């Protein structure tokens, strides 16, 4: 079923959404997508990305590279901006119910690189697809410690994708 809704930035309501993930200047080889699908009681999230960096252990007080922090951020923006610190326009973590980091609605399990490939599917009851349209998904360089506020100390932003309804219309 399709319908118009003047309060939504999108003309048609869908129960599926997709974010196409593109690597920024720190990891231009990253490519993939995140799918969101309404299911009873919540949403299933499926992610498939390639081109992730290989794991590097932390040395001399530096954080390890990977597993990669993975979150929904609050803004509809994946412009690179500062090439040394990309994707700042995506904003902070999407946090609609004012929770501490570690319990943000868009705090996701980290991505593990299997020679660059990560594939993962999980369920969340924290949102439905309509709630995350126009937000963004970010993959970070470092692991999320799920403690440090406000974003888990997961480091720079390697890749970004804006969450859009999943279908093709003649207007796109
Ligand atoms: Cu993040």
Brief overview, please?
The chain has 172 residues and is mainly β. The chain has one helix at residues 129-132, and strands at residues 16-23, 31-39, 42-50, 70-73, 118-124, 136-140, 157-165.
Give me the CATH superfamily: Superoxide dismutase, copper/zinc binding domain
CATH architecture: Sandwich
Q: List segments where confidence is low: pLDDT < 50 over at least 5 consecutive residues.
A: none
Strand order of the largest sheet: 4-6-7-1-2-3-5
Determine and state the CATH class: Mainly Beta
Question: Which ions, cofactors or small ligands are bound in this entry?
Answer: copper (II) ion
* N-C termini distance: 19 Å
Structural class: mainly beta
User: Which radius of gyration do the C-alpha atoms yield?
Assistant: 16 Å
Query: What does the largest sheet look like?
Result: 7 strands, antiparallel
Task: Supply the key terms.
binds copper (II) ion; 172 residues; 7-stranded antiparallel β-sheet; 1 helix; mainly beta
Structural overview:
The structure is a single chain. The chain is an all-beta fold and 172 residues long. It has one domain (16-165): Superoxide dismutase, copper/zinc binding domain (Immunoglobulin-like). 2% of the residues lie in helices and 30% in strands. It has one helix and seven strands; from the N terminus they run E-E-E-E-E-H-E-E. The chain has one helix at residues 129-132, and strands spanning 16-23, 31-39, 42-50, 70-73, 118-124, 136-140, 157-165. Strands 4-6-7-1-2-3-5 form a seven-stranded antiparallel sheet. A hairpin with a 7-residue loop joins strand 1 (16-23) and strand 2 (31-39). It starts with 15 loop residues before the first strand and ends in a 7-residue tail after the last strand. The mean pLDDT is 91. Bound molecules: copper (II) ion (CU). Copper (II) ion (CU) binds at residues 69, 71, 73, 93, 138, 140, 151, 154.
């Amino acid at each position: 079923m399709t319908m118009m809704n003047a309060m939504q930035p999108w003309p048609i309501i869908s129960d599926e959404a997709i974010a196409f993930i593109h690597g920024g200047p720190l990891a231009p080889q990253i490519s993939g997508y995140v799918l969101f699908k309404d299911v009873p009681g919540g949403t299933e999230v499926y992610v498939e990305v390639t081109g992730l960096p290989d794991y590097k252990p932390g040395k001399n007080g530096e954080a390890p590279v990977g597993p990669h922090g993975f979150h929904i951020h609050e803004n509809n923006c994946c412009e690179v901006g500062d090439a040394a610190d990309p994707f700042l326009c995506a904003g902070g973590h999407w946090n609609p119910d004012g929770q501490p980091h570690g319990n943000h609605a868009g705090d996701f399990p980290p991505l593990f690189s299997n020679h660059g490939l990560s594939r993962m599917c999980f369920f969340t009851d924290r949102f439905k697809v309509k709630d995350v349209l126009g937000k963004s998904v970010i993959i970070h360089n470092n692991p999320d410690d799920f403690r440090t506020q406000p974003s888990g100390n997961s480091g720079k932003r390697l890749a970004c994708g804006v969450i859009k309804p999943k279908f093709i219309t003649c207007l796109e």
